[in-house]
Structure formats: C-alpha cells, structure tokens
C-alpha cells in the first residue's frame, strides 16, 4: 500500500469507500451524495460527534425507553439530560408520548433507532418514520439516527431509515460495518444533513481521520462485490439462531416469561416472570461464565429491573443450549 495514500483518506474519508456507501444508499432508494458522507471511527464516534454538534451541556435530549446504553453514556459524558420516551416492542418510539415530551421538556435533539432498536428489536413502519421526521421538522429538532442494525433485516428488503424522508437536513444518520462485518475495523459513517460541514470539522479536530488501511480495505472489499452475498448468509444464520434461542427460552424459562420476536438484528428482549431481579440473575449467571445484559443497563432511571437482553449473534451449539437451560434454572430459582 502506498504510505502517502493516508493523506487521501483524511476526513471526510476515503473517496472510494464513500462512493461505495453512496451506492448502497442508492440501491435502497436514497440519493445521498458522496460528499455528504463523513467516515468516522465506528458509528459510535459519529453519534457522539452529532450529539456534541447540536447540544450544549445542560440541554435535554430525547432517548428511547429502554435505550442503547451507549446513548445513555454519551449523554452523561456530554452533561446532557436524558428524557426517556417509551418504545413500542414492534413499532418503535410512541409518537404521542414523544409529542408530549417535546412540549414539556423542549429538548435540543432526539437520539433514536428506527430499525431493530437495541434492546427491544422494534422496527418503525415507514409511515411512522415519515410522521416522526415531519414532527421534528416542524419543531426544528435534529434527529440523531442510529442505524447500525438496518442491514440485518429478515424481510425481503432493507428497511429505510427515517433519513429517507428528511427534506430539510435535520437528520444526522450514522451506521457502520461493525455489526455486519467486524467491529474491530472501527469504520462507520455519518450523513449529517445540514450539519455536514460542521461535523467534518469537528471530526477533524477530535481525531483527524478514520484508520486509512481499514478504509482502503473496506473500499476494495465493497468494490469486489462480495458484501451482499455475505449479508444474505449472515441474515439466514441470524434467522436460524433467533429460532433456536426463542425455542430454548420457551423450553427452559419459567411459565409467564415473555420474549420479543424481532424482524431483524440479533437481540431478544425478555421479560422475566414472577418478579425475578435481572441484576441478581446477571450476577449469578456471570459467576457461571454466562453473560446476559440486565434491563437496568438500558435506562437512565435504572428501570426494567425484570428484563434481560439475550444475544443470538453467535452460531447456536450445545453450549448455547446449556447456557439457556442454566439461565432458565436460575430464573426459576
Ligand atoms: C445500538 C448501537 N449503536 C451503536 C453501536 C456502536 O457501533 P460501532 O461499533 O460502529 O461504533 C452499537 C454497538 O454496540 C450499538 O449496539
């Protein structure tokens, strides 16, 4: 590799990679210009930069309830106030509750996941995404959209993000290759709408650029055309693994346990029966080498004390079955 090529890869990032990402948007019916894409160190950096750009310490920001703990940590580290709004297990954030929260708290931004929300797995229908963008456009409130699981759909086509309905540039859309290829590359991107220039400047100030060899390798890989085949295989595997995990939860967990059944992503959100304390279950499971994410991790209020998030991102085998059987026994006890 030409050592000087690193110069070409500084922010906004490797032009070939940005062209490949723009082509992927186009395949999903979205016209995103290559120049509007900023390559970042994983989606998390893009989300944090977006947050920093549109808020100042002390502001209120809407997050989902439950929310990805990375969002809660980001708000905390930027000195922001989390306003939690309930997420419907299938359809995403409750728009009536969101409207009321906008009136009451006058937030400076919303940080949401419209596709396969972490942890509940909800997928917002298109009409709802459109209504969400309209609502926020009317009030001129930026939407920081986290779309890292959008490619992991189980239906016939990739669900479009809310960004697809954004005419005035209020949506700052971030995604990455972390969930579909490997988190270790630390390559993601942000399309920041009307905040694009400022986001690129802030990215340059914070970390100059994303890793040049990783960007070049991904650009090359995408150009060669194997990514879609890989994604199809991954989705098939995830569907099978979800089926196996759902069956095991139904078999081993106490009666009355309820699990989500998402149409994509790789998490199940499980409501434990009979007042089981998720933190206690987490501690006991961990002492046996089993890792589950306890519900309170996903809430600034430490709510969801009787929920856990289970992961079916790994190939299913006897060890997985035994781990769920053990968890079920612990929940029963
Ligand atoms: C919902 C969500 N958003 C963002 C991220 C971070 O993505 P990346 O690895 O691309 O920074 C994660 C990863 O854990 C995630 O689950």
Do you know the CATH topology of the largest domain?
A: Aspartate Aminotransferase, domain 2
- The CATH superfamily title of the largest domain: Type I PLP-dependent aspartate aminotransferase-like (Major domain)
Mean pLDDT: 96
Tell me the domain tally: 2
Structure classification? alpha/beta
User: How many strands appear in the DSSP assignment?
Assistant: 12
Oligomer: single chain
C-alpha termini separation: 58 Å
The main pleated sheet reads as: 8 strands, mixed
Strand order of the largest sheet: 1-8-7-6-5-2-3-4
Order of helices and strands: HHEHEHEEHEHEEEHHHEEHEEH
Proportion of strand residues: 15-25%
Radius of gyration: 20 Å
Name every ligand kind in the structure: pyridoxal-5'-phosphate
Describe the structure.
The strands form 2 sheets. The protein has an 8-stranded mixed sheet, with helices on both faces. A 4-stranded antiparallel sheet has the order 9-10-12-11, with helices on one face. Helices cover 42% and strands 16% of the residues. The chain has 333 residues and is of the alpha/beta class. It folds into 2 domains: 5-225, Type I PLP-dependent aspartate aminotransferase-like (Major domain) (Aspartate Aminotransferase, domain 2, 3-Layer(aba) Sandwich), CATH 3.40.640; 229-332, Alpha-Beta Complex (Aspartate Aminotransferase, domain 1), CATH 3.90.1150.10. Strand 9 (258-259) and strand 10 (267-271) form a beta hairpin. It has helices spanning 5-8, 15-27, 42-54, 69-77, 95-105, 126-139, 196-207, 212-224, 227-252, 278-287, 318-332; strands spanning 37-40, 60-65, 81-88, 92-93, 109-112, 143-146, 171-176, 188-191, 258-259, 267-271, 293-294, 307-311. It is globular and about 55 Å long. The protein starts with a helix and ends with a helix. Helix 9 runs parallel beside helix 11 (318-332). The structure holds pyridoxal-5'-phosphate. Pyridoxal-5'-phosphate binds at residues 42-44, 68, 70, 113, 118, 146, 148, 176, 178, 183, 188. Pyridoxal-5'-phosphate (PLP) binds next to helix 3.
């Amino acid at each position: 590799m030409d050592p000087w090529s690193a110069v070409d890869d500084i922010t906004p990032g490797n032009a070939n990679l940005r062209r490949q990402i723009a082509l992927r948007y186009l395949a999903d019916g979205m016209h995103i210009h290559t120049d509007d894409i900023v390559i970042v160190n994983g989606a998390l950096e893009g989300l944090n930069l977006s947050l920093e750009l549109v808020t100042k310490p002390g502001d209120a920001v809407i997050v989902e309830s439950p929310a990805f703990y990375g969002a809660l940590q980001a708000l905390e580290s930027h000195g922001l106030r989390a306003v939690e709004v309930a997420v419907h297990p299938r359809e995403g954030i409750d728009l009536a509750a969101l409207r009321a929260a906008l009136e009451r708290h006058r937030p400076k931004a919303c940080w949401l996941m419209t596709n396969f929300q972490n942890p509940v797995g909800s997928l917002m229908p298109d009409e709802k995404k459109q209504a969400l963008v309209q609502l926020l456009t009317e009030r001129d409130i930026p939407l920081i959209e986290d779309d890292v699981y959008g490619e992991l759909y189980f239906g016939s086509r990739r669900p479009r993000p809310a960004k697809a309905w954004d005419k005035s540039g209020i949506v700052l859309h971030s995604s990455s290759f972390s969930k579909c290829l490997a988190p270790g590359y630390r390559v993601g991107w942000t399309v920041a709408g009307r905040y694009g220039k400022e986001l690129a400047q802030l990215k340059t100030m914070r970390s100059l650029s994303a890793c040049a060899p990783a960007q070049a390798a991904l650009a090359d890989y995408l150009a060669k055309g194997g990514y879609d085949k890989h994604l199809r295989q991954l989705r098939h595997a995830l569907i099978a693994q979800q089926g196996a995990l759902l069956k095991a939860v139904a078999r081993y967990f106490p009666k009355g346990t309820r699990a989500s059944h998402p149409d994509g992503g790789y998490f199940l959100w499980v409501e434990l029966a009979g007042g089981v304390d998720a933190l206690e279950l987490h501690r006991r499971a961990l002492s046996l080498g089993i890792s589950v994410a306890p519900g309170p991790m996903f809430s600034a209020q430490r709510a969801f004390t009787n929920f856990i998030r289970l992961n079916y991102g790994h190939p299913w085998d006897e060890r997985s079955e035994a781990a769920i059987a053990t968890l079920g026994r612990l929940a029963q006890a």
